[in-house]
Specification:
7 helices; Serine Threonine Protein Phosphatase 5, Tetratricopeptide repeat; 162 residues; single chain; mainly alpha
Length: 162
């Protein structure tokens, strides 16, 4: 997910074969299928992305990143209406999830400047076209991945300080 999607496909495919039930333990949990689907999406392998993301959603209907990328994959696969609905739903769910996370003292460092929520608000304003939802979804997906990395680094720094 660090700008090398072909390598990510190979890596996550191997991990999915060896541990198909793997889930991250971060605040925003994702399955190995979500990561694999996202990697396929980034390489424009939309059929494979759809299959992996559907596996992710079958095991956890609240995997918001899987729902987001599934919606964007549907749009990219010319299922614009269904994909738009799914992408918009995922963005709204992620917004609500971020609001809820902000209320918890253990996780309130997530999106503390509300940049991700602002991107979602802006992207959903008016009646966005399918491709505009995809652009917003891609931006939000990247921001969430950066937020995962940032909060992980902050936790390590806090441990090292203590």
């Amino acid at each position: 997910m660090a700008g090398h999607p072909e390598e990510a496909v190979a890596y996550f495919s191997e991990k999915a074969d060896s541990d198909p039930n793997y889930r991250t333990s971060f605040v925003l949990t994702q399955s190995i299928w979500t990561y694999l689907g996202r990697a396929y999406y980034e390489t424009a392998q939309y059929g494979e992305a759809r299959s992996a993301l559907e596996k992710a959603l079958a095991s956890d209907n609240d995997d918001y990143m899987a729902r987001l990328y599934h919606g964007m994959t549907l749009v990219r696969s010319n299922e614009r209406e269904r994909g738009s609905t799914e992408t918009e739903t995922a963005l709204r769910e992620l917004y609500q999830w971020l609001d809820n996370v902000a209320l918890n003292p253990a996780t309130n460092e997530w999106d503390s400047n509300k940049q991700i929520r602002k991107a979602i608000e802006t992207g959903l304003a008016g009646k966005p076209a399918a491709i505009e939802l995809v652009v917003t979804g891609q931006r939000v997906g990247k921001q969430l991945e950066e937020e995962i990395d940032r909060t992980r680094r902050e936790k390590v720094r806090a441990v090292l300080r203590n």
